[in-house]
Design a protein that fits this description.
Layout: H1 4-8, E1 14-19, H2 22-31, E2 36-38, H3 40-48, H4 58-70, E3 76-79, H5 87-99, E4 104-108, H6 127-140, E5 147-152, H7 154-158, H8 160-173, E6 177-180, H9 186-195, E7 201-203, H10 215-221, E8 225-228, H11 231-250, H12 263-269, H13 272-287
Parallel strand pairs: 1-2, 1-8, 2-3, 3-4, 4-5, 5-6, 7-8
Keywords: Hydrolase, Lyase
Pfam family, one: PEP_mutase
InterPro entries: ICL/PEPM, Pyrv/PenolPyrv_kinase-like_dom, Pyrv_kinase-like_dom_sf
Amino acid sequence: MPSLKQRLAQPEILIAPGVFDMISVKIADSLGFEAHYMTGYGTVASHLGLPDAGLATYSDMVSRVSAFTTASKVPLIADGDTGYGGLLNVEHTVRGYERAGAAAIQIEDQEFPKKCGHTPGRRVVPLEDMLRKIRVAVETRDSQDFLIVARTDARTSLGLDEALRRGEAFAEAGADVLFIESPESVEEMERVCRSFDQPLLANMVEGGRTPVLSGTELQALGYSLAIFPALGFLAAGSALREAYGALLNTGDSRRYSGELYDFMDFSRLMGFEAVWDFERRHAEDKKS
């Protein structure tokens, strides 16, 4: 299997679904995606039941990175927020995420407390502050295959010109992948792609500020990587609300009209076959 760095060097766009808990990781992994994206919004919501507003700590998130990479066979791109503090925190975060098995860490230029990139009220730090974080991240990593994804949220508050200026500076500081958050039209996305030669990330959030395009359309624009961070938890939330609502209203799970994952197939997905095999082998030992 190629490393994330090697895969991004290929001409075909890389599609990464957002994973937010162990079930989503195992399902995505079973379907054959080439990479996964640990969504901060979904992971904080699933793990802590809180909004993605700077409330999760480094310890909260690095434990999720470790769990997700253990359950997956493909590279994980992990949201690292703002690095969880100052420059020393960025160093600690990069080391921790790399040790936990992530293939890349995403660091953004928002002021603390940060917010989800498609919600209002986001403000960015001075450019030089973010450049220091990128330089520390690049200096800290042990392997050149551990990628630094640098995200700017400047488009919403300061305009696209400033976002592009920051992206250029991020590249000069050593970022491997550029993430210009929240362009608001296809024309803006085209301009982003014309402005850079290195890998670009497109963030496809259903209901967000950026038009949602297909992988084919994004590749034609010039993107190398597309993440779909919200699709999984929005789909799961809708299905749970419908299923639980049917149970509440009727007292009968059979009245739920949606599709259910087959119980035995789900048990196999969770690894029960290894448990069954273990029990069979040791039952035979007891007989002998």
